[in-house]
Design goal:
Layout lengths: L5 H10 L4 E7 L9 E5 L2 E7 L5 E5 L13 E3 L2 E3 L6 E2 L5 E3 L19 E4 L2 E6 L21 E10 L3 H8 L5 H4 L15 E6 L2 E6 L9 E6 L4 E7 L11 E11 L2 E11 L2 H31 L16 H29 L1
Antiparallel strand pairs: 1-10, 2-3, 3-4, 5-6, 6-7, 7-8, 9-10, 11-17, 12-13, 13-14, 14-15, 15-16, 16-17
Bound molecules: FE2/S2 (inorganic) cluster (FES) and fe (ii) ion.
Fe (ii) ion binds next to α3.
Length: 347
Amino acid sequence: MSSVDKDQVEERLTTGILGQWYAVAKSVQVKRDKPQPVMALGRHLVLWRDTGGKLHCLEDYCPHRGARLSRGEVNADNISCRYHGVTLDGSGTIVRVPAMPGCPLEGRKAVDSYPVLETNDAVFVYFPSKERPDAPELNLPAEFSDPAWSGILCVGRWDCSYRLVYDNFADPMHACYLHANSFTLAFGAKQDVLQVEKRDDGFHIARVEQKDVNLDWTDVIIDGTQIYCRLDIPYPDAAGPGGPFRIIGYTTPVDEHSCMVFFWRFRQVEGIARESWRFLYRATLEARHWHVLEQDREMLTHIPEDAHKREMLYQHDVGVARMRRILSQQAKSQLAAEEMAAVRTAV
Ligand code: FES
Ligand SMILES: [Fe+2]
């Protein structure tokens, strides 16, 4: 029987649940020959590309005396600390201590390394849990690999807990209020009832009375390896070809007070229509979408951090409640696994 208590679950949820892949950076941020620091789940990490362009991710910590590896340099396939030149490979093993050849530190695995993958202009890193130390395969959204869809990534850093962003994913009803004066979300009824449908990989939350008028449904995917949302925004004819505008959204805790948001904006367009959508998007639509996202950011970053202690939820928060319950269960289960592992080590 596990003795995991509420405070431990809360603490884990504050920094971010483990055993998941998280988006941590845009691909273009990690240049050849230059290590890139990133912070996620309260951890300092460093990313770099080897000579083949493949990404590696380590703790941003030099095992010699703790300097940030991200202040160092890429040395062929390895990374070297600027302070005294200690060099590590992508597994976190010290391969060279240039100031002292034959140093016994060589060959020691000294810092944590993280599985990393790159797709659709973003870098994802796996944060292991005791339950699942090895990275599971990541089932990315179908839109990422289906040539019928064309997406553009936009990324922001928001000064609020990632948990508020998840709440926002699970709350389609906010759109007709918060975004009422936007280009795409000004339409439809302002009253409805929401219904949740459980799915194998998360849940679907939808308005009962309205469909394809505003942000009327969201899929929340929680498949045990990642968390993201999918939603459609109906588009006026003036917005060109491609039907509704689909958003795939991920968020990653940076620390307990801030997070990164990764939103891919997709349309179902091919050939010339694809080019015209990408052009139109860059030329006119992107600014409008930033405007909508800013409304979310503005609202979430001004919610007091302890607001959850005095919330008064109603029927429209059924998705929010579901989201929180699933995350709490995941946190609890990984804490219980850590407790078991600690007991096994002690005996
Ligand atoms: S602290 Fe990195 S080499 Fe000395
Ligand atoms: Fe929104």
